[in-house]
Design a protein that fits this description.
The chain is mostly helical and 392 residues long. Helices cover 47% and strands 8% of the residues. α2 runs antiparallel to α3, α2 runs parallel beside α11 and α11 packs across α15.
């Protein structure tokens, strides 16, 4: 059966939104765009633009307050869905990310090949010659996944991975640890402050100083819809203006020249992540029994590499951000060869589904631990990335 491709569906939805907005520019029934969208007397503003407008006017604007509260409610219920399912900038940068991801997957191709093959080629720990570890051996319920990982040793994919993405424990990838402790350092819940939040603060501060929304002049979302309008007027009415070249140039600088605009620079995404702090629906969860890493101890971090936000579902604290930044794009689910990632409406409390995995203290400890003492993941605490380890 052909695997469902969420990226194609998201792209079609974004094109449909652009088509509706573009058609509205030349009809009496236009609904505006993401900077200001509405029907008749009901209008909703971009939440960042609404905040900037109120700061510029130094007063509470009823329309702006209602817009911010409405977006807050949507983020509480659905999270940052706007970023992945409607924002055109996300898809402009998608091609560049896809190219980089394709290069990075070259080093992890053997791990993906292991998922689809019936056996896993690996060298036994301490053995002089290589041996084949079959899939049935990896699925043996009498042996622990951690023990299989130690017996299998490092795979070719793990050996080829860059140093920052590797951990000292065999069979575990993308577990950066510091020299002072054996567990990954980082924040598993809430917000991880990064450069986007600094730009958000700069946008608010510059508006307060200059008295008008400075960031709105260079916002790639607003410039995208402005470019659509200018191009349509150019061909429909022959309107010529220098901005028809200036706006696409600014967008190109922001999206193509600045690396990872959405993940590193977008203040709107930072604001939405703050709003999504109370979101608990449609959060990604891993089925530990299906997952190659958690269930079989095989080195696989395809879901982390696919995530445009840099979330590490196996260990949220070790990722670049937390689940507050999850945009529900389903890129991780599309990349998983075992279909082990789901987006349930509400987090389940049963075992077998988790959002983070426990990290062995050391390779030697995993090798010496008996199979009956293999660390297991608590699905209850893992919903927010802060799962506590329990003994299975």
């Amino acid at each position: 059966m052909k695997k469902f491709n969420s990226a194609r569906l998201r792209f079609l939805i974004m094109l449909a939104v652009l088509a509706v907005v573009a058609a509205g520019y030349f009809t009496a029934g236009g609904i505006g765009n993401f900077c200001g969208i509405g029907f008749d007397t009901i209008t909703f503003l971009c939440p960042l633009g609404a905040l900037l407008a109120m700061i510029a006017e130094r007063t509470a604007i009823p329309m702006a307050v209602v817009s911010v509260l409405a977006v807050l409610a949507v983020c509480v219920v659905l999270g940052k869905v706007f970023c992945a399912w409607a924002c055109p900038v996300h898809f402009m940068a998608r091609g560049k990310r896809k190219g980089k991801r394709g290069a990075s997957r070259a080093s992890g191709s053997s791990a993906e090949g292991d998922a689809g093959s019936s056996s896993v080629a690996a060298s036994s720990c301490g053995a002089a010659d290589g041996s084949a570890v079959s899939r049935s051996a990896a699925d043996d319920p009498s042996a622990s996944p951690a023990l299989h990982a130690v017996q299998a040793g490092e795979s070719a994919a793990q050996a080829a991975a860059p140093a920052p993405d590797r951990d000292k424990s065999p069979g575990i990838t993308s577990r950066p640890v510091c020299s002072a402790c054996a567990a990954p350092c980082g924040k598993a819940k809430g917000i991880k402050i990064d450069s986007r939040h600094g730009i958000l603060a700069a946008a608010l501060g510059s508006t307060l100083v200059f008295g008008f929304p400075v960031f709105c002049l260079i916002c790639p979302v607003g410039l995208t819809f402005a470019t659509v309008l200018l191009v349509m007027r150019l061909f429909a009415f022959g309107d010529t203006t220098w901005t028809v070249l200036a706006f696409p140039a600014i967008i190109a600088i922001e999206v193509l020249l600045l690396p990872k605009w959405c993940q590193r620079f977008c203040p709107l995404g930072a604001l939405l992540s703050l709003f999504s702090g109370l979101n608990r629906t449609f959060r990604p969860r891993i089925d530990s029994e299906k997952c190659l890493l958690e269930g079989r101890g095989l080195p696989c971090n395809l879901c982390e590499r696919a995530c445009p936000e840099g979330i590490n579902l196996h260990d949220v604290a070790a990722g670049e951000t937390t689940l507050n930044d999850c945009s529900k794009c389903r890129a991780c689910a599309d990349a998983c060869p075992e279909h082990a990632i789901a987006f349930p409406f509400l987090p389940s409390k049963g075992r077998g589904a988790s959002a983070s995995a426990s990290v062995p203290a050391a390779a030697g400890g995993a090798a010496s631990a008996p199979a009956s003492e293999t660390p297991a993941v608590s699905a209850e605490g893992a919903a927010d990335g802060g799962g506590t380890a329990e003994r299975g």
